[in-house]
């Protein structure tokens, strides 16, 4: 019987452990404010988007969205708890309320928007699916890939696009499906598959993880539209707005030339009315969103504007060195465009 | 001392009547279970409605739209999720069946080796068993896949044998048989040989019962089965056409291929399970009283026949029940395929399909019921078999 | 009178003692056996020398980066550099003493339980098993009495493996015992419920259970009720394992002679007292080796939490092998993981055998 009693004690402990992390998921905003942090679902390791250093600090473009939300809400970008999720787990984790926001390079599609009970709050990266191959194969275009063995990550839109593309071009292929991107990269390296297919941003990220990145090349074809963005549950508009406008604030800040270094200064002067409205020195736009008046200041100060975040994580300032391309601002030939604050 | 007068009164009390108490207790238990079930069901219902998640099984008819590396039945990306389910199920069954056969063979061999009079063989068997049964199967699968299979050379540097078998990081390629025109004759000859063997077997049994003379049945049957169809081949030519794999483009084309995911999974699972089976076999053989061996010897049975006719039938009675649970474990462990991308039930259906449709509850429920059905059928079969060979006390 | 003196005994012939005789008896007793020996020797020669040269002779032991691994053999530098992560996961390095202390307390606290002469062992045991989990929770998780909180998402490595295994078995034991009693109960409804429960959990793979607990459990619960990911995994592990414990305990209950039940009833003991004072103490003693074996299985099964993204020992190692700075270290990583698991499992299985011999109360013929 002594075993039984000890186990009872452990049970109680487990219950305490559970209770300590109880959270209200009803109205997400209330719940988040009550618990004092944002529970954010991120990728299980994708350089540039979300990854942990060896001390367990998370960083990346997707992580910055979570940090921006926390900065807007609490004025403190560190009030985020991260749940690394596999592609398989992500939607159920969001639906079930395990995470408040899912920022995990997730493609916006109609079936996800409607059928899964989710809402996409915006697009933080415009992507398209591409192919990564070993130079030794001598392949220059995706049309040469007839009969190839292709590595993909399970449960992604890429799995479907790939089939469509090969079917449309009357090509044959053998898919090898892995749970994580690390596994597919390892598999490509060993020659198990000829091609690795994924969103182009991921291909660049995975290439630097390979032993000899220079031996691999990303093919020119982009076979799909992959707008990636943060996702929230349906039916919770307040929360949806906060996530959406945290992202917009970063884009607007870049457009208005506000950076993390000059934001303090700009928030004091009232020269440009657009800047003043965004930074809360004119009007009460934060209030409508149920946010403090200096919400955008905090975002830009602690996380940076969209351009800074892009450069630091995936752009010129990072190892990935991805061009802005589609992700440049609209007035620079790109697609990043945010509605005005007014 | 209890007052004797109390006894009848106490017996009449509602709380102390054991039958009534049992009834109440059971009712409470059932009510609690039903209540819990209803609570969970109701919550799920509310949650699904509130979050606008689809439910129901209609999705099984939708087009899947993705490719699968290994399918035993015809499959294209335009087929439905329902068909994907069967592809996954068959792949799981394939791994389980190959794994069970391999594990049984290795396990029996090792079990006998553990009891060998040869010291070295005994020690080697012990080392094998103690090593492999103490390492998690998932780790073994990952090792075989990532450290062994994927470090094989690429398709252009394959290890080839006889110009028809090739081993590379894409798998083991081998020639596949097809039927030629002369197959009919060959088949007829084979049928003839089988019928003749059965008749021979009956005759031999009758003769043995009548005269006590043994007949070298095994050798005769093997000879019969080899000679008659062999003659047919000699007369009419090869009944099978072999398609030999050839390197074309990226890959070998033609022939059969065992993909590395399948090889790693079956190898790891059978090596792991064999360690347990070996111990079961050893215990089974040891459980047969030594007197049985001595009795058999004193009846003049040679060592081989002693083992075959006396020891093994008795040992099997001890071996079968734990063996069954090892088979069940192997079937369930085949779900670890998810770790290396083999398209089994869990990684294909509870993985890809779940993700594309987002209907976690339906998909997991189907997956779990399939495994339950597999376990129940294996244990039913084994129970039947066990009942057949059980000691019939006369 | 002539006395008869015995001649001293002749030494046994050369052929039946010493190394030669041993070799003859054990390795070369017939042509088949000799063939087997040669084959086995060939196998050993095939496996052992390359293994030793890879793991020891040609291996690199010192250094800090991958560049220090220059020889053909294993690169143990990798293990050395990442050792902290493999043991503690992302547990903050300045707080790792708390994990160490938890483990040391467990060892120190448990030692008296293994000393046979220890007085009042049972009482001490119960006390230890009540106090220790609370202490361990306080040390590992913190958040009160002056210790900083360490989120369960930061737990990892061998620490997490041990936590899952320990909580799993401690939770599964009482539940399993209740289920075993229920399965042997005379009340048909209880029996049916318990049999269904046990057969259900024994029939499904742990992966699907973990997956269910990880992503689906919140859908089953009312809004607002949300458990920590680790707690959910633990619930899954406990339910799954309790079914196996129940079957082991049932074996013990069946082995108790009917006379014990009848004697207990005759003493006027009710059901719970009969079970608690007479039957279970005997039955549990019988099945301790079986429970240890179940625990070994559970310990190996903890590696499956990789599927739901918890960073146990195996997942930490897998993660480290994808680090661009340490590519190609998969074999070293897996060998190290295998070694750690092996040491624990082998140790426990030896202990279980020892117990079996010790607790064998002489029913042998």
UniProtKB/TrEMBL annotation, chain A:
Gene Ontology biological process terms in this record: amino acid transport
Keywords of the record: Signal, Transport
UniProt keyword annotation of Signal present: yes
SMART domains: PBPb
Keyword check for Signal: yes
InterPro entries attached to this UniProt entry: Bact_solute-bind_prot3 (IPR051455), SBP_3_CS (IPR018313), Solute-binding_3/MltF_N (IPR001638)
Pfam families in alphabetical order: SBP_bac_3
Domain (Solute-binding protein family 3/N-terminal) ranges: 37-266
Family of the protein in this entry: Belongs to the bacterial solute-binding protein 3 family.
PANTHER family: AMINO ACID ABC TRANSPORTER PERMEASE, AMINO-ACID ABC TRANSPORTER-BINDING PROTEIN YHDW-RELATED
Protein's UniProt name: Solute-binding protein family 3/N-terminal domain-containing protein
Species in which this protein is naturally found: marine sediment metagenome
TrEMBL record, chain B:
Gene Ontology cellular component list: ATP-binding cassette (ABC) transporter complex
Broad class of where this protein is predominantly found: membrane
One biological process term in Gene Ontology: amino acid transport
CDD domains: TM_PBP2
InterPro entries hit by this protein: AA_ABC_transptr_permease_3TM, ArtM/GltK/GlnP/TcyL/YhdX-like, MetI-like, MetI-like_sf
Protein localization: Cell membrane
Bilayer-crossing regions: 20-41, 53-73, 85-113, 134-152, 183-203, 215-236, 256-278, 363-385
PANTHER family: AMINO-ACID ABC TRANSPORTER PERMEASE PROTEIN YHDX-RELATED, MEMBRANE COMPONENT OF AMINO ACID ABC TRANSPORTER
Family statement: Belongs to the binding-protein-dependent transport system permease family. HisMQ subfamily.
Protein name in the entry: ABC transmembrane type-1 domain-containing protein
Organism in which the protein naturally occurs: marine sediment metagenome
TrEMBL record, chain C:
Listed GO MF terms: transmembrane transporter activity
PROSITE patterns attached to this UniProt entry: ABC_TM1 (PS50928)
Location(s) in or outside the cell: Cell membrane
Residue span, ABC transmembrane type-1 domain: 158-347
Main subcellular location of this protein, as a coarse class: membrane
One Pfam match: BPD_transp_1
Keyword Oxidoreductase: no
Name under which the protein is recorded: ABC transmembrane type-1 domain-containing protein
């Amino acid at each position: 019987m002594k075993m039984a009693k000890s186990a009872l004690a452990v049970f109680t402990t487990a219950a305490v452990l559970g209770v300590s992390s109880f959270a209200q998921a009803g109205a997400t905003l209330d719940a988040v404010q009550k618990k004092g942090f944002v529970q954010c679902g991120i990728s299980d390791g994708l350089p540039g988007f979300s990854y942990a250093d060896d001390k367990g600090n998370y960083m990346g473009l997707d992580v910055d969205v979570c940090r921006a939300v926390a900065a807007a809400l609490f004025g403190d970008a560190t009030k985020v708890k991260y749940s690394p999720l596999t592609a398989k787990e992500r939607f159920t984790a969001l639906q079930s309320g395990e995470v408040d926001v899912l920022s995990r390079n997730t493609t916006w599609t109609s079936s996800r928007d409607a059928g899964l009970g989710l809402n996409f709050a915006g697009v933080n990266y415009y992507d398209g699916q591409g192919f990564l191959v070993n130079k030794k194969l001598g392949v220059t275009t995706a049309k040469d890939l007839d009969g190839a063995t292709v590595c993909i990550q399970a449960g992604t839109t890429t799995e479907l696009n790939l089939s469509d593309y090969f079917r449309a071009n009357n090509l044959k292929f053998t898919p090898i499906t892995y749970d994580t991107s690390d596994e597919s990269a390892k598999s490509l390296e060993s020659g198990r598959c000829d091609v690795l297919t994924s969103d182009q941003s991921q291909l660049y990220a995975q290439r630097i993880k390979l032993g000899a990145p220079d031996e691999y090349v990303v093919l020119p074809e982009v076979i799909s539209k992959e707008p990636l963005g943060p996702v929230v549950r349906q039916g919770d508009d307040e929360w949806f707005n906060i996530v959406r406008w945290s992202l917009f604030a970063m884009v607007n800040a870049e457009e208005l030339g506000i950076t993390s270094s000059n934001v303090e200064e700009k928030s004091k002067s009232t020269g440009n009315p657009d800047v003043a409205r965004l930074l809360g020195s004119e009007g009460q736009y934060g209030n409508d969103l149920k946010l403090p008046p200096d919400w955008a200041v905090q975002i830009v100060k602690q996380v940076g504007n969209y351009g800074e975040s892009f450069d630091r994580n995936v752009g010129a300032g990072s190892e990935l060195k991805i061009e802005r391309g589609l992700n440049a601002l609209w007035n620079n030939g790109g697609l990043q465009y945010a509605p005005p604050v007014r | 001392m209890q007052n004797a007068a109390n006894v009848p009164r106490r017996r009449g009390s509602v709380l102390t009547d054991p039958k009534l108490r049992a009834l109440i207790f059971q009712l409470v238990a059932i009510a609690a279970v039903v209540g819990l079930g209803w609570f969970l069901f109701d919550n799920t219902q509310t949650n699904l409605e509130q979050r606008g998640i689809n439910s129901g099984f209609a999705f099984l008819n939708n087009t899947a739209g993705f490719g699968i590396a290994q399918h035993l039945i015809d499959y294209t990306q335009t087929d439905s999720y329902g068909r994907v389910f069967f592809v996954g199920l068959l792949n799981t069954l394939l791994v389980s069946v190959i794994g069970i056969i391999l594990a049984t063979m290795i396990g029996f061999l090792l079990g006998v080796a553990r009891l060998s009079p040869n010291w070295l063989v005994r020690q080697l068997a012990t080392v094998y068993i103690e090593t492999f049964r103490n390492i998690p199967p998932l780790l073994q699968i990952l090792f075989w896949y990532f450290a062994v299979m994927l470090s094989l050379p690429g398709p252009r540097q394959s290890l080839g044998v006889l110009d028809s078998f090739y081993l590379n990081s894409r798998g083991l390629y081998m020639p596949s048989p097809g039927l030629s025109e002369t197959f009919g004759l060959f088949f007829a000859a084979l049928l003839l040989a089988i019928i003749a063997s059965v008749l021979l077997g009956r005759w031999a049994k009758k003769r043995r019962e009548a005269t006590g003379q043994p007949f070298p049945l095994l050798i005769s049957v093997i000879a019969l089965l080899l000679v008659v169809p062999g003659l047919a081949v000699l007369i009419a030519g090869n009944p099978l056409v072999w398609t030999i794999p050839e390197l074309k483009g990226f890959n070998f084309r033609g022939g059969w291929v065992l993909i590395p995911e399948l090889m790693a999974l079956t190898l790891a699972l059978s090596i792991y399970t064999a360690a347990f089976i070996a111990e079961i076999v050893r215990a089974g053989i040891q459980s047969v009283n030594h007197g049985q061996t001595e009795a058999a010897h004193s009846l003049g049975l040679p060592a081989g026949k002693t083992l075959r006719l006396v020891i093994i039938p008795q040992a099997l009675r001890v071996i079968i029940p734990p063996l069954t649970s090892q088979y069940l474990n192997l079937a369930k462990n085949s779900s670890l395929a998810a770790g290396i991308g083999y398209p089994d039930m869990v990684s294909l259906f509870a993985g890809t399909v779940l993700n594309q449709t987002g209907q976690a509850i339906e998909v997991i429920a189907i997956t779990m019921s399939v495994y339950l059905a597999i376990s129940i059928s294996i244990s039913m079969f084994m129970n039947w078999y066990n009942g057949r060979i059980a000691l019939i006390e006369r | 009178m002539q006395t008869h003196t015995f001649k001293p005994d002749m030494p046994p012939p050369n052929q039946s003692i010493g190394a030669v005789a041993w070799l003859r008896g054990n390795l070369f007793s017939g042509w088949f056996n000799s063939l087997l020996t040669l084959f086995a020797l060939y196998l050993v020669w095939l496996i052992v020398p390359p293994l030793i040269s890879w793991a020891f002779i040609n291996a690199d032991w010192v250094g800090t980066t991958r560049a220090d691994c220059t020889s053909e053999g294993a690169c143990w530098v990798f293990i050395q550099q990442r050792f902290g992560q493999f043991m503690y996961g992302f547990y903050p390095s300045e707080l790792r003493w708390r994990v160490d202390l938890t483990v040391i307390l467990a060892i120190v606290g448990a030692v008296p339980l293994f000393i046979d002469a220890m007085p009042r062992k049972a009482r001490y045991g119960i006390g230890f098993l009540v106090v220790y989990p609370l202490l361990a929770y306080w040390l590992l998780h913190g958040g009160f009495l002056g210790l900083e909180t360490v989120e369960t998402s930061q737990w990892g490595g061998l620490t997490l493996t041990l936590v899952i295994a320990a909580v799993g078995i401690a939770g599964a034991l009482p539940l399993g015992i209740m289920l075993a009693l229920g399965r042997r109960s005379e009340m048909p409804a209880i029996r049916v419920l318990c049999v269904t429960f046990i057969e259900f959990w024994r029939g499904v793979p742990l992966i699907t259970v973990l997956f269910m607990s990880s992503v689906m459990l919140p859908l089953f619960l009312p809004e607002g009720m949300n458990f920590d990911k680790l707690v959910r995994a633990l619930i899954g592990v406990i339910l799954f394992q309790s079914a196996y414990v129940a079957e082991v305990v049932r074996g013990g209950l069946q082995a108790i002679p009917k006379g014990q039940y009848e004697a207990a009833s005759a003493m006027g003991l009710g059901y719970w007292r009969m079970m608690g004072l007479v039957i279970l103490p005997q039955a549990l003693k019988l099945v301790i080796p079986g429970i240890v074996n179940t625990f070994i299985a559970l310990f190996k099964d903890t590696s499956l939490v990789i599927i739901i993204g918890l960073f146990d020992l195996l997942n930490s190692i897998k993660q480290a092998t994808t680090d661009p700075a340490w590519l190609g270290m998969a074999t070293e990583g897996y060998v190290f993981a295998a070694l750690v698991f092996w040491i624990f499992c082998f140790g426990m299985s030896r202990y279980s055998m020892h117990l079996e011999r010790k607790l064998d109360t002489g029913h042998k013929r």
